[in-house]
Amino acid sequence: MDKIVKLQLPDLMIGQILDGLEQQRHVWQATAHFLATGEPPDDVLVAECSDEEEAVWIAGFYDEIIREIRRQISKPS
Hints:
77 residues, mainly alpha, 2 helices
């Protein structure tokens, strides 16, 4: 099991982290779409990976990270 890390950061920093994670999720979603259709995206670069399945998995992992951070910051303190 992964080690659990607890961070305390200002809201502004958390917002910036989430923005970066959302951008990476978008890159991997675009990569999966490109690998599935051959159509290059207009607004984002395509990441390097083995195949569409890997890109979908990575995009999903970013989504999981984003959801977990949002879940934790929405909990009452």
